């Protein structure tokens, strides 16, 4: 796939150079790239699902390595893998139902033969990787299943002389996967409008709303509430880049009464606020969030004054990982020039010893982690949820097959043998053990 590899390299370069800003833009580019990879991939007649999964995993590893802190990339890759497994199970289920119906229509079969065929179908289907998800039941989508069913169906069709039907099902799998990825892209594009529909239910007349961070989701949320509610907005300016000045201008242009405050004034103003509404970078499996630096300070101030802390986020920001996972990079350092000019920085160099060692160090982190106990409620494009429910919601969007391997690997490292034959058990957060047990029960 030389043409596809060029597209992959282009996106990898953009991610590595931080040319893509925002989780939504990153998620869209990732989903569109994976759609191109799937559509241009030449797959064999057997083991098609495995071929698609391996191709998506290979591309996903390159994208994640280019920018590990952009968790939306890994989210979309795992979402597409989940789609492939669900569509593969749907094709397998429909084919097996066809076999059952054809067996039932044969008058020459005895009752015992029919029962034997029904048992064969049940054994062939095997247990799914997890029970039907709430999201799957609501959307009437097939349940998730492992990819080995397609190869079994291929063998069964050969035994029944159904080669033509088998080819149809093979092409149907790829078509259904592309259709599902297109639906995922549409969901990402429309997540702001879906979230904004809940604004009127949360915001009331004469309230004061505090927001922190430059988020298009928050902007559309507040503007949607303005259609039926009259309220004021406090916007923290967002030093050192002051990106929220643009948000304040947008809100004023939409007719919202807006007050711009400094970040350090949040605690002083929070007692006048009725609700805090923020957008985030990612939502972790334990219900914690990654947001712009300083967000934890706002969350602590909100809890101190019993102010609801509302997080608005699309489902593409739901990350199936925990913040303490080794593969999760929670932060990165921005350029020091956002705080100091290089001329000012050079004046603080120690030239007397000739080493050029700076006496002044500049630390400019990009993100902040907010634990789940500081979050009041999540507003997503499919509804509102408590932080304690996020792990179950995440299980509806990701396959246990893509999460269980890494969880088991980490769990096994907790019981490793040392050269002196002593066993050491490193610290393992109990939430991760609970999540591992949850995945094992679902498998």
From TrEMBL:
Transmembrane segments annotated in the record for this chain: none
Keyword Zinc-finger recorded: no
Entry-linked InterPro entries: eIF2B_beta_subunit, IF-2B-related, IF_2B-like_C, NagB/RpiA_transferase-like
Taxonomic superkingdom: Eukaryota
GO cellular component, one term: eukaryotic translation initiation factor 2B complex
Keywords, alphabetical: Initiation factor, Protein biosynthesis
Sample GO molecular function, one term: translation initiation factor activity
Family: Belongs to the eIF-2B alpha/beta/delta subunits family.
UniProt xrefs under PANTHER family: INITIATION FACTOR EIF-2B BETA SUBUNIT, PUTATIVE-RELATED (PTHR45859:SF5), TRANSLATION INITIATION FACTOR EIF-2B SUBUNIT BETA (PTHR45859)
UniProt name for this protein: Translation initiation factor eIF2B subunit beta
UniProt source species: Populus alba x Populus x berolinensis
